[in-house]
Design a protein that fits this description.
The complex is a heterotrimer of chains A (390), B (219) and C (164). In chain A, 58% of the residues lie in helices and 4% in strands. Chain A has 390 residues and is mainly alpha-helical. Chain A has three domains: 136 residues, no CATH class; 182 residues, no CATH class; 66 residues, Alpha-Beta Plaits. With 219 residues, chain B is mainly α. Chain B has one domain. Chain B starts with a helix and ends in a 7-residue tail after the last helix. In chain C, 23% of the residues lie in helices and 32% in strands. The longest helix of chain C is centred in the N-terminal third of the chain and has 34 residues. Classes of the chains: A mainly alpha (390), B mainly alpha (219), C alpha+beta (164). At the A-C interface, helix 4, helix 5, strand 2, helix 6 and helix 9 of A face helix 1, strand 1, helix 2 and strand 9 of C. The structure holds iron/sulfur cluster (SF4). The site of iron/sulfur cluster has 14 residues of chain A, from helix 16.
Chain lengths: 390, 219, 164
């Protein structure tokens, strides 16, 4: 429990002065500029502008995080931008390259199916047992469409996961932004009573998909359930079953990514379906950063519970002063708590003692990853749009 | 073919095929076993029921395979119909199983019994037995390979012996599943297992209907 | 009493920040290389299996791949993949008898037209000269195990095996 002398600092961190906020932003500003250097040095004008805009955007958001001590709403701008721009660029690329969002069989044979991170948990068992990757991609560094080779994606995933753990779902995932944007639109949630058991569905999806992927020797989630196929690529429907699969993708996307977030103000796809999110929750156990509820200050008003986009706070977990394993460190609960009882925390340290230090350390690590991965994607997306416009 | 050689061949084929059997039965066995109560005894009972009827399925298949000699490679249309039908049955059995969880008697005996499909109150059939029979008859491709071999044998007894030994060897790979008895069962685990069963069932139903309707699943 | 664990926590947090800095310069490359070194390969149902032999024809080559067998519940048939390349050296109509198993006897006769436009759908006829291989009539690209497709500079034909 926190030492009373130290809890004098508990509660909301007051806004910082401009100078101090600027100073704290400096490392990330340098990092972001460094990340955009490659684009800035290219002769392509659109890429130069896109790189500059992205760097400015990321620096400005981080500055606001430092200035206001609020995390969630500024991070959300980045995350929504990433989530919205990514499919635009992706669809544009596949349309230019192959004239359709459907992956023709020859592209699969050529190993040019773009590999995203979602099938990673499904590939582990077949790979461990047979040394085979059940995905029509490529292992070469520049393999896959637009260089999205499986090895590169796996390497990037592992590295970022090492740093942010489940924070992947808030600072790296290029799919979650659409629903986060949708959830931000309404003022109030229209559906408030959600069965808490639904939170467990992603684990069931993970279990079923891992087992089916091994039995069928194919990435079962990509073939049958991924809502984001509706805004990326899908198996060109060569038969009725293909049409059924594509129908499932569209219905799930419409329901979980568009309609339900509008009604519930939650990230419903992440909370009620995503098997990768469930898998990534395991890495919450390996991460040194987490969110705690300081029970000496908590009333409890459950505003944190209401604000959590993934239902990662329950009455019981609040009583225990913890979040659930599914917490993705978005910071919404910390921002929502009027008493400053929800705090950033470093494992092993006392709860609510220097929570701002924990937040800063986490944000430096997480934002560095966001600028490196999401920032690069946003730059590419903006450059494509600018190329079309200019 | 000499007896010991036959036994040895069947045993080796079974051992080599075991991982494939476990993988192909995995989507059925793992969630349904997880949905049962905890404790290695109960889980061992589940596996005995499952494997017992799977064995029956094997023998049935062996007898027919030997009788017809060609059943293991019937015309593709017929095979698709058989597989489609069994997929649908398996999907229905899984859904029924998922529905039956926690519907048995509410006494302490419920905790020690396997989930049974059928009438509540009277003795129903253990769900594990039904799943074992259906997976035994249809799903395991290595088993089809064993069927091919059995069909070449000179008499029915040899074919049955071949299958029995093949079965025993594949069964060794299922033994570690008893360890799932150590997994703590609470409402969350049961919910996850049940939901996973429903998802797997939906897949089998869809795949089965597609096969029956003459549609290809992939390609 | 809490002091050492908190020190450990801060050290780990500090190391996480350092690790983050190392990701683009070291860890990303290291993990990517490590992944390629695991010796994994893409499922042959997609990739077509390793090359066994190359037959030299009139200005072009026919590459024969090792037979691929489906895994577990995959509904595809076993097949062998044959590649004709380069496409621009192929005659307008190809009709080759190919010795797939290397026993000196032709096993299949594969016939297809080579359209000028790479986007034109391809069709193939395969006559089985050996009962191990399945004949195909006017087949396009409906299954991984039965198809003709153009991939870059090659035309790929996959001939199913009958299991005999
Ligand atoms: S518990 Fe807090 S930080 Fe974690 S996901 Fe919910 S709102 Fe975000």
């Amino acid at each position: 429990m926190a030492d009373p002398a130290c809890t004098a600092f508990a509660g909301k961190t007051p806004p910082r002065s401009w100078g101090r906020a600027l100073l704290l932003t400096l490392p990330i500003a340098l990092w972001s500029l460094f990340m955009s250097l490659r684009g800035l040095l290219q002769p392509d004008r659109s890429l130069q502008i896109a790189s500059a805009l992205t760097a400015a955007f990321l620096i400005a958001l981080f500055f606001m995080m430092m200035k206001t001590s609020s995390t969630y709403r500024w991070r959300r701008w980045f995350f929504v931008a990433l989530g919205v721009l990514f499919p635009i660029e992706f669809i544009h690329n596949v349309m230019v390259l192959r004239g359709s969002m459907g992956i023709p069989i020859e592209e699969m044979i050529a190993g040019r199916t773009p590999f995203c991170f979602l099938p990673i948990p499904l590939l582990i068992l077949p790979a461990a047992l047979t040394k085979t990757l059940v995905f029509p991609g490529s292992l070469l560094p520049g393999g896959g469409m637009a260089g999205a080779g499986m090895a590169a994606m796996a390497g990037l995933w592992l590295a970022i996961t090492l740093v942010v753990g489940k924070g992947w779902c808030s600072y790296a995932c290029f799919f979650g932004g659409i629903e986060e944007g949708m959830a931000a639109l309404p003022k109030k949630a229209h559906w408030k009573k959600l069965d808490p058991r639904l939170r467990l569905v992603p684990w069931a999806v993970l279990l079923a998909m891992v087992l089916l992927s091994l039995a069928l020797f194919e990435p079962a989630y990509c073939m049958w359930l991924c809502p984001f196929k509706a805004v990326s690529e899908y198996v060109a429907a060569r038969n009725t079953v293909g049409m059924v699969q594509n129908g499932i993708f569209v219905v799930l996307f419409a329901a979980l990514v568009i309609v339900l977030p509008l009604l519930t103000k939650k990230r419903t796809q992440c909370t009620f379906l995503c098997p990768f999110g469930a898998f990534q929750s395991i890495f919450n156990k390996t991460s040194v950063f987490d969110i705690k509820i300081d029970r000496t200050v908590c009333s409890p008003c459950v505003l944190c519970q209401k604000s959590c986009p993934t239902m990662s706070l329950t009455d019981e977990s609040i009583k225990k002063g913890e979040t659930l394993m599914s917490c993705m460190k978005c910071g919404a609960c910390v921002d929502a708590c009027p008493k400053g009882a929800a705090v950033w925390h470093i494992r092993g340290t006392q709860v609510a003692v220097k929570p701002e230090r924990a937040r800063l350390m986490f944000l430096y690590a997480a934002w560095a990853m966001a600028a490196m991965f999401g920032g690069t994607i946003i730059t590419q997306d903006l450059a494509t749009i600018l190329q079309r416009v200019i | 073919m000499g007896g010991p050689f036959l036994v040895g061949e069947a045993f080796l084929l079974g051992l080599a095929s075991g991982p494939a059997c476990v993988a192909s039965c995995g989507p059925v066995v793992v969630p349904s076993l997880l949905a049962e109560g905890a404790g290695w005894r109960l889980n061992a009972r589940y596996l005995s029921s499952f494997l017992g009827t799977r064995f029956l399925g094997y023998l049935l298949f062996a007898a027919i395979a030997w009788e017809l000699g060609v059943l293991v490679s019937p015309p593709p249309a017929v095979r698709t119909l058989i597989y489609g039908g069994i997929h649908v049955l398996l999907g229905v059995a899984l859904l029924w199983y998922a529905r039956s969880i926690g519907r048995g008697c509410a006494h302490a005996c419920a905790a020690s019994g396997l989930v049974s499909i059928g009438r509540v109150g009277k003795r129903g059939v253990p769900g594990a037995a039904i799943l074992g029979l259906l997976t035994g008859v249809s799903l395991c491709p290595p088993f089809v390979a064993a069927g091919l071999r059995a069909a070449q044998l000179s008499n029915l007894a040899a074919a049955l012996l071949f299958f029995a030994v093949f079965f025993v060897a594949t069964t060794l790979w299922f033994v570690p599943f008893v360890g799932m008895g150590c997994v703590r069962r609470n409402a969350s685990v049961i919910f996850v297992a049940r939901t996973a069963m429903i998802l797997v069932a939906l897949y089998y139903l869809l795949a089965g209907v597609a096969m029956l309707a003459g549609r290809r699943i992939y390609g | 009493m809490k002091w050492p664990t908190s020190k450990l926590g801060y050290t780990a947090a500090g190391m996480t920040v350092v690790v983050a800095m190392l990701v683009p310069f070291l860890l990303f490359g290291l993990f990517t290389k490590g992944f390629t070194k695991l010796g994994l390969r893409v499922d042959e149902m997609y990739s077509g299996g390793p090359t066994v032999r190359t037959i030299q024809a009139d200005g072009y080559t026919v590459t024969i791949h090792k037979a691929v067998y489906p895994h577990l519940l995959q509904t595809e048939k076993p097949f062998v993949q044959l590649d004709w390349k380069p496409v621009n050296a192929l005659p307008q109509h190809v009709s080759d008898a190919v010795d797939v198993d290397g026993d000196g006897q032709p096993d299949v006769r594969v016939s297809f037209d080579v359209p000028k436009d790479p986007k034109t759908p391809l069709r193939v006829d395969v006559d089985a000269l050996n009962p191990r291989y399945q004949a195909m009539r006017n087949v396009g690209k409906q299954k991984f195990s039965e198809l003709i497709v153009r991939v870059d500079d090659a035309i790929l034909v996959r001939v199913p095996l009958t299991g005999r």
